């Protein structure tokens, strides 16, 4: 992040260079990073196990919890926080709302692994959230950005979104890696066998996810480095709703799952899935819709600036609570599923 900001500030030609490399209004440099980062993660999802996993009641319970948290609670809380803390900054407010609508799919795998969450459930929730995001992000964006403000007497046509640019960006940034991951697993297991796929192919492409993440963060912050420094006051204000959101969503989910008697690995998976966001998608949508130099894109870029260190701290908090709190043993049904 620091390297990206320094590049963006001291090399002013970087931003125009990014603007010239686009597919329609979609930034190709960011698209490349997203594809490289998300492809290995989505190759790991055991799609062939979905039918058997979905036959277990415990899986449906976890899916229901995840859907409610991610597609009802999360967007409402982020929108409320954005309006409460940024009433006089409509551009930045819209960018924050876009972050709230982009539910996390790729980064949550990293937080989940670090904190000792359940990898099987996490992979399934990632796949389901990716599919739901393709279907729901565009109508949700229209609802929360175009329609909801009108309910409270606030209408700003300059903030309005149109359906197709948003849907196109979602299809590119999510649809392509999801389809590629599914086809790769299907063809790889069919031709070379599951053992080769799991033990040889995945370990070789796995590091690409981290490289793609580092590259994407550098590109995003280089893109907005000058704007971050020039608008440091607004940047600090944007950090407020984001920080509050991550803390509320994580701890509310964590202690709710604990109260429901859910074991630690599943609690961690639900908490990080609910408490993190797909900031790459939010930035991509903001750039594709409002432009690379817009306040919306800058606000969305602040997402990882706050999310990455906060959620890294929450990884250690989760591991601390694992030792300090009493947890129920993993139920037999859940053990069978995993």
Automatic annotation (TrEMBL):
GO molecular function, one term: antimonite transmembrane transporter activity
Primary location: membrane
Pfam families referenced in this protein's UniProt entry, alphabetically: SBF
Membrane topology designation: Multi-pass membrane protein
Annotated keywords: Arsenical resistance, Cell membrane, Membrane, Transmembrane, Transmembrane helix, Transport
Taxonomy, superkingdom: Eukaryota
UniProt similarity note: Belongs to the arsenical resistance-3 (ACR3) (TC 2.A.59) family.
Lineage: Eukaryota, Fungi, Fungi incertae sedis, Mucoromycota, Mucoromycotina
GO cellular component, one term: plasma membrane
Sequence intervals crossing the membrane: 20-42, 63-86, 92-111, 123-145, 165-188, 200-222, 242-260, 272-292, 298-321
Localization annotation: Cell membrane
Record-level GO BP terms: response to arsenic-containing substance
Name under which the protein is recorded: Arsenical-resistance protein
